[in-house]
Amino acid sequence: MALKQGEETFTKWTHVENGKVLVRRIQRLEVQARDGRLYVITGADLPDFIQTNTGNGRKGDNLAQILLKGGQKSTFFRMESRPWPTARDALNFVIGFFAIGILKFILSIAEQAF
Length: 114
What we know:
single chain; alpha+beta; 2 domains; five-stranded mixed β-sheet; two-stranded antiparallel ribbon; 1 helix; 7 strands; 24% helix
């Protein structure tokens, strides 16, 4: 659950770099998944606290930590169920078939010419 002060809803972000600490408030968090989808987290869906660490890397050290209240269900990476195939998948499928057909047509013309 995000922190709230007056009308402002935010998460506390602490950045530690070689012993220097920077603390900021974040009202909107955007996370890009491996498949390219962008997740925007705002309002009550924000975690309580985010910490990032940089500097000399060591095995077992965390780059980022996201802490939620104990017993709270994590909504951080809420995946929306989407039907498959999506419209984008169907469009790519159709474009692929047209491209193959056009390529075969060009090849048949080239065989007749030579």
